[in-house]
Amino acid sequence: MSGELDALVRRHRRLNEMKKGGQVDAASQALRELWEAGKKPQAIALRHSFFDTNQPPPPMAGLLNPRGIAMRFYLLALFEAQCRLDVGEQRVGSRPIAGRNGWADLVAIDGAYDAETGKYMRGGTKQDRDLETLRLRQVQGALRTMEKLGNDRHQALVDIPTKDNGHRLYDAFTLMAESGRGRLQTPDRYSVPKLERSKAFRVPAAFFLNGWVQVLHPSEIATWLIFQALSQHFPGKHDDEGNFLVGDVRKRFGLRRDAYEDARRRLCSFGLLRIARPKSEQTSIFSQPIAPRERYEPHRYQVVHGGLGEKALDRCLKEITFLQNELRKRKS
Questions:
Q1: Would you list the DSSP string of 178-201?
Q2: What is this structure's pTM?
């Protein structure tokens, strides 16, 4: 229990710092300006190949590290592309990494925390720990992570050109398809997909515009994306009795059991998922309840469509505060 409480305390501290500094609001405003100036898509199309389990581990698995923003950045890159481009068009780099309206403006971080004093280093330090520099480093780190995916980089999600002196040209990165650059000499560059149920699913724009992409952990984003895809690929099953994820499939997605269990609990508390109650188990005055769920049967979940309409930072802070208090009561 102490481990879970410590994690909640750290998360509350980081979210509270971003709220005080207005980082999530600023990043969300930059994304909204990008959306309004472009095609205003109501949803982003994401190909299933992002977590294709036929050739495990899928590209998504390489982005599950809780440290860094690689998962977040790749999704932001898809959002940026689909705000500007039509179906079938390839993304060509046109946005700088740093500066006003650069990639670093689209991400929110909490800054440099000093464990000895228990305070944030506001205003920067000799180690260049001001927020602007830290955001830039996070973006550059995310690009390096995405470039190295796969044993021979065949799952790389970006390509970063390099000068003869080894200097990386981050501003000129090329975005790759959700399945990675591939094994051929010619890389599989990203193009906006057509929204076909067998090939892609919808990620509502509110996920980006209301700050959810900024505050969810990588394992939570991955879990939520999987249930989004399941709900759209099997809509009848989703509405009638919910979707589930068994252990063998979860492992192929690259999700550890503890990370998945924690993610689904948090997503339920944040109002993005709910434990499904199948229609066959619902009772009325004309029916009798059936036997309880067998112990070996997995929990089934349904996507809560209205959850994304809330401001992510406020909802998460509220729920994490409640969870901290509950754990402290149980501990005492």
A1: TT-S-SSSS--B-BPPP--TTTEE
A2: 0.90
